[in-house]
Amino acid sequence: MVLGAVSTAVNGAPPPIPMWASARPHRKPGFNVKTATGFYGFTHTDGAITVGSYVGGGSSGAFGGWLGTQSNHKLFFFTGNGQPTMTVDTTGNVAWHIYASFKIKRSAV
Question: Is the pTM of this model over 0.70?
């Protein structure tokens, strides 16, 4: 797990709970990561592909919350433990995947 610029390697054991996690009664229990602007939050990797979160600004001028691949790989979105329903490739193209036929029904309002 990576918290900001600090990496905490844990051998199979859960990471320690940060002191600030219990000081947030307005937040639901769960995994919260707090970093300074411009640092990655959580990262997940197999050594070749890395997915992570980021808070701050980018070179494009966009400022906000980010989720994506840190390595040069596609980002897939899926549901129900199934195949990708949306893909963002490394050039920024977005593809929606439809695995079943459907009809759009218009109704009067």
Answer: no
